[in-house]
Design brief:
alpha+beta, Pnp Oxidase, Chain A, nine-stranded antiparallel β-sheet
């Protein structure tokens, strides 16, 4: 992670993450893009960490349909729900491909690396295709379809599901990440 000016909303996010514990589903986030027909597309992806204090990382397959969406409209939104803390975060921003991504590849486990050698995502399964175990030595070579995206965040909203009344806050990068309470 680069930079040392951590926005205040990151403290709220960290607090929510701690309440959730170490379960792997706590890293699942929902990514929304818009397709060429201006229709929303939503999918679950894995949060992979922070690139800067206000940009998050996800990995994707270059062959997936979301790459076409991003090329025509880089605006995106991520929704991250934390059940135990009853908090929902919405991150709005622009998705940008990180061209230098070898260090991210090198941090993956062998099991994770092997999934990048599967067939084209979203296409009909070829009946003749037989998945073969990838040799450990072959996993050192990053495939071309491995893409790292960063969401450069411009706005964050947090909804706290409290009783008797929910609380909702917004932070905007243009306002120096100052917190505003808004109607739930």
């Amino acid at each position: 992670m680069k930079g040392n000016n951590i926005p205040i909303w990151r403290q709220e996010l960290t607090s929510a993450q701690k309440k959730e514990g170490k379960s792997s589903f706590n890293r699942w986030i929902q990514l929304a893009t818009v397709d060429a027909n201006n229709e929303p597309r939503l999918r679950t992806v894995v949060f992979r960490g922070w690139h800067t204090n206000s940009s998050m990382i996800i990995y994707t397959d270059k062959r997936s349909e979301k790459i076409e969406h991003i090329q025509s409209n880089c605006k995106a939104e991520i929704l991250w729900l934390f059940f135990k803390s009853k908090s929902q975060f919405r991150f709005k921003g622009s998705l940008i491909e990180l061209k230098e991504n070898t260090n991210y590849w090198n941090k993956l486990s062998e099991e994770s690396k092997s999934t990048w050698f599967w067939q084209h995502p979203g296409k009909r399964i070829n009946a003749e295709f037989k998945f073969k175990q990838i040799a450990s030595s072959d996993l050192n070579t990053k495939p071309e379809n491995f893409i790292v995206l960063k969401l450069e965040i411009c706005s964050v909203e947090m909804l706290k599901l409290l009783k008797p009344m929910h609380k909702r806050y917004r932070w905007n990068k243009d306002d120096g990440w100052r917190r505003y309470e808004i109607n739930p």
